[in-house]
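Hi there,

I know you've been waiting on this one. I reran it after we fixed the sequence typo, so this is the corrected version. Both the input and the resulting structure follow.
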Amino acid sequence: MVTAKTLGQGSDMQVKRVVLNSRPGKNGEPSSENFRLEEVSLAPDLNDGEVLVRTIYLSVDPYMRCRLNEDTGSDYLTPWQLSECVDGGGVGVVESSRCSTYARGDVVTSFSWPWQTHAVMKGGVLQKVDPQLVDGHLSYLLGAVGMPGLTALLGVREKGHVTKGANQTMVVSGAAGACGSLAGQIGRLDGCVRVVGICGSDEKCKVLVEDLGFSVAVNYRKEDVSARLRESCPDGIDVYFDNVGGAISDTVLAQISQYNKDVPYPPPLSDKTQEILQSQNITRERFLVLNYMNKAEASLFELSQLVKSSQMKVLETVLNGIENMGIAFCSMMKGGNIGKQVVKISE
C-alpha cells in the first residue's frame, strides 16, 4: 500500500502503479509478465517538502534492462526490487505542494519518477521545466530535450571530435532509437559529410534517410553490414557512435544488442577486436552523460533551439495508458520503437 504522511485534508485517492513482478531468467529477454499493475490508495496529504504530482508521460529506456537484474553490473544504477514500484524518467504536473520551490500547475520532471498515475514525491528529486522549452510537447523532455538528447549532443561534442571541413564520416548504431536518431543529425549539423545509420528494419532505414537526413541506412537484419559499410564509407570511418553495447569488429561491425544478456555493462571486447583497435590506432571511449551534467543547462537550451527551428527532427513512438508500461518496455527492447518510446499516462 502506498501512503503519504498525514497533514492537511482530503480523502485517499485510488491510483494505479506498476511493480516488479519477477525477474527474467538468466540470459533471458524480459516479458510483460515481469511487471504487475496494482491499484492502491494514496493519501494526498503532504509533509513539508513534498508535492503531489500527476504523471503525464513515462519513459522506457534500454538501460532499464540492467535494473531488472538482482545486480545491475553498474555502480550508478540500482536494481528494481520485487513487488516494489518501478521508476525511471517521467514528467508531470504539480497538483498540490508543501515545497516552497513548486506551486500547483508547475511542470516537473525527474529521473526517478515512480510508475504511478499520481505520486507524492520529495521536491529535491524534481526539476521544474518551462513547457515553452519544447513548445508544449512535454514528451520531448524525456527524449530530444532530455537525457537522450544530452547523451547524443555531449557524446558527439565531447568524444566524437567532429571537425567542420574535415570530410569526416560518422557511423551510428541503434540509429533509429532515441539517442542514435539524434546523434546522427547532430553529427551532420556539426560537419560530418557522411552519416551512416545501422538499424533493424527497412521502415527505419527509410525514416533515417528520408526524414532525418542520414546519407545511408543499413538494415543489419537483412544486409551484409561489412560490405555495405565498405561501400558507404569509401574514405573510411572517422567517428563511430555506438548505442547498443554490442561487439565491434574490423569494419565497425553490425551491432547485436547485449542488454538482454547477463554480461558486464558495457560488454567486454573480444581479443580479436582488441587487436584491431590497437593495430589501427582506434580510440574507444566510454561516454557517461552523468559526468557532464555541468553542461546540461546550456546543452538542453541548444537542443531546444535545434528542435524549435526544425534543424533537428524528433521521432517518437507513443503508447497510451499505464497498463501498457510493460508492453512498451518489451517492445522497445526488441526494437519495436522508432525514436523515443514513451507512454502517455494522462492529458
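Quick highlight: The longest helix spans residues 147-160.

Best,
R. S.
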